[in-house]
Design goal:
The chain is of the alpha/beta class. Helix content is 57%, strand content 11%. The protein has an eight-stranded mixed beta sheet with strand order 3-2-4-1-5-6-7-8, with helices on both faces. α10 links the parallel β5 (253-259) and β6. α2 packs antiparallel against α3 (61-73) and α8 packs parallel to α9 (229-246). It is elongated. The chain binds guanosine-5'-diphosphate. It comes from Ruoffia halotolerans. Keywords: Cell membrane, Cytoplasm, GTP-binding, Hydrolase, Membrane, Nucleotide-binding, Receptor. GO terms for molecular function: GTP binding; GTPase activity; signal recognition particle binding.
Length: 341
């Protein structure tokens, strides 16, 4: 069953059934992580929708303007807001609805269906059939890059995979130390070089070891300094070349780590990085700490890059593979449960 059908059913009085189904689908633990991690975003979104309907009189231009404001305020982004409002306008006219509860249903249905139309790619990691799967992690300092490397390492290890990590950010002693701490805590080996040594040489050693010792995954933390785009392009291209020397299939994934609390700035960063190198997936951290979780919709709409993981807390188990259904349901759930408002 698609996301759209499930949420539509939730809206027509089966919300408890749908909730139970989602708990079963990905286990209750996953449901709870989304439930708690998205609390601020859900509250922000439902309050904006509730406000919209408190002053609702009829479908007129004021209504559409307020609707647009609600979406922008929920960090859904400009382009997505315009497309969404147009789709809602068409659906309202087509179905000829005007009772608040019907209008609300149409709003949610269109949100889910526009999301489905923009579904981009799989959340699964692309595997290397002939050797270690290499994942580069890029992103500016402070977004949660090193933490995400550790957490994804943990996830993969839990799946029974053999994982090795390397601290490609040799410019900050703190970054090397931090990855070492994760490695010790999770019992995952970490390849490091001296502070300020050439990152490419550290990565070379790591690929060599990953190959020789038959690791399934090599996770590469890279430097977050981005003086110029040319600089970044050069650095990453060099790293990829070095990796290809030892691992003929090269790099399988380049994950850009973004901090969700920065809202639309995360989108700007994604565009800049994507111009410097091909980003194959996004890791969106700190969703638990922000009401700006609507940015996932905006990223989906504006960029053709799948969100692969989202960070729903600080624990190793809090980084979850992105599940659009859990996300959408947890975004709109309070609005569904508050049908009478
Ligand atoms: P880096 O500079 O990009 O490598 O960032 P770090 O990995 O050092 O993370 C910066 C801070 O963000 C740390 O205090 C992390 O604990 C925190 N952090 C990372 N991911 C998450 C998340 O999903 N949720 C929360 N609440 N904090 C996070």
């Amino acid at each position: 069953m698609g996301i759209f059908d499930r949420i539509k059913r939730a809206f027509t009085g089966e919300d408890q059934v749908v909730k139970e189904e989602l708990k079963e689908k990905d286990t209750e633990i996953v449901f709870d992580k989304y439930d708690k991690g998205m609390e601020k975003t859900r509250k922000n979104f439902s309050e904006r929708i509730a406000d919209l309907f408190t002053s609702f009189r009829e479908i007129d231009e004021d209504f559409y303007e307020d609707l647009e404001e609600a979406f922008i305020g929920a960090d859904v982004g400009f382009n997505m807001t315009i497309a969404l409002t147009d789709a809602i306008r068409d659906a309202i006219e087509e179905e000829n609805v005007n009772r608040p509860e019907d209008v609300k249903r149409v709003v949610l249905e269109q949100m889910v269906s526009i999301y489905e139309k923009n579904e981009t790619g799989s959340v699964a990691i692309k595997e290397n059939p002939d050797g270690p799967t290499v994942i580069l992690f890029v992103g500016v300092n402070g977004v949660g890059k090193t933490t995400s490397v550790g957490k994804i390492g943990y996830n993969l290890k839990q799946e029974g995979k053999k994982v090795i990590m390397t601290a490609g950010d040799t410019f900050r002693a703190g970054a090397i130390e931090q990855l070492n701490v994760w490695g010790e805590r999770l019992d995952i080996p970490v390849v490091t070089g001296k502070a300020n040594s050439d990152p490419a040489s550290v990565v070379f050693d790591a690929v060599k070891q990953a190959n020789e010792e038959n690791y399934d995954y090599l996770l590469v933390d890279t430097a977050g300094r981005l003086q110029t785009k040319a600089n970044l392009m050069e650095e990453l291209a060099k790293m990829k070349r070095i990796i290809e020397r030892e691992n003929p299939n090269g790099v399988q994934e380049v994950f850009l780590v973004l901090d969700a609390t920065t809202g639309q700035n995360a989108l700007i960063q994604a565009k800049q990085f994507n111009e410097a190198t091909e980003i194959t997936g996004l890791v969106l951290t700190k969703l638990d700490g922000t009401a700006k979780g609507g940015v996932v919709l905006s990223i989906r709409y504006d960029l053709d890059i799948p969100v692969k993981y989202i960070g729903l807390g600080e624990q190793a188990t809090d980084l979850q593979q992105f599940d659009p259904e859990q996300y959408m349901y947890n975004l709109v759930r309070d609005v569904i449960e508050d049908k009478q408002a």
